[in-house]
Design brief:
- By secondary structure, the protein is mainly beta.
- The chain has two helices and ten strands.
- Strands 1-2-3-4-5-8-9-10 form an eight-stranded antiparallel beta barrel.
Length: 207
């Protein structure tokens, strides 16, 4: 992972060296849409801890994301406003043993649990490098932070209601990113940031 971050950082440093006199790849009035997938899914580590502390046997943990889509409208050649939707989820299943007073197994109960997280950020980007193919920017976003938790089990009288909410109902993201266009309208995007995926990559579609 350190090697990946080093390579991406080096790419940004090289990008700064490009001349801004080349024709800009993005300009005022453009709309840019970036579907992406990121790493890591931090919520999965909390599920691993839950499994360990609650003696869940044969646990299978699965996760989606962090993933999402960013949309940006260029108000000027080097400044844009938009929205960033970020989603990640984790689910797991296993069995929990119920023991007799002498410590022998009485019965095993199937248990499933899930966590879903949704974030929607209003986003501002400043584009500090633009060449015929490369568009590099720094961005800041802030908005909602919604989590859903739930556990289901065939344990007698188990309460299967899910819970929604978050300790902090707002979230923010600070990022540096780049887009490299293969054609006038289609390219590749990558982004490093805090408050969302640590690193993400995907397509860039410009209109």
């Amino acid at each position: 992972m350190k090697r990946v971050l080093t390579l991406v950082a080096a790419a940004f440093c090289l990008a700064i060296g490009f001349s801004n006199s080349a024709s800009a790849q993005v300009e005022e009035g453009n709309i840019i849409i970036d579907p992406y997938y990121g790493y890591p899914n931090i919520g999965q580590s909390f599920f691993d801890l839950f499994v360990d502390e609650n003696n869940v046997d044969g646990a299978e943990i699965r996760g989606i994301g962090p993933c999402g889509v960013r949309a940006e409208f260029m108000l000027a050649d080097n400044f844009g406003l938009g929205v960033d939707f970020i989603y990640n989820s984790v689910s797991g299943s296993g069995t929990v043993d119920s023991l007799n007073t002498d410590g022998t197994l009485f019965r095993s109960y199937d248990t499933k649990l899930f966590m879903r997280r949704y974030r929607v950020h209003l986003r501002a980007n400043y584009h500090f490098v633009q060449t015929e193919a490369l568009d590099a920017y720094v961005g800041f976003g802030a908005g909602t932070n919604i989590r859903q938790f739930g556990v289901t089990s065939d344990y007698p009288n188990f309460n299967e209601e899910s819970v929604s909410g978050a300790l902090i109902p707002v979230s923010a993201r600070l990022a540096i990113g780049a887009r490299y266009y293969f054609t006038d309208n289609i390219g590749f995007n990558t982004e490093l940031g805090l408050g969302g995926p640590l690193i993400s990559a995907g397509l860039s579609l410009k209109f």
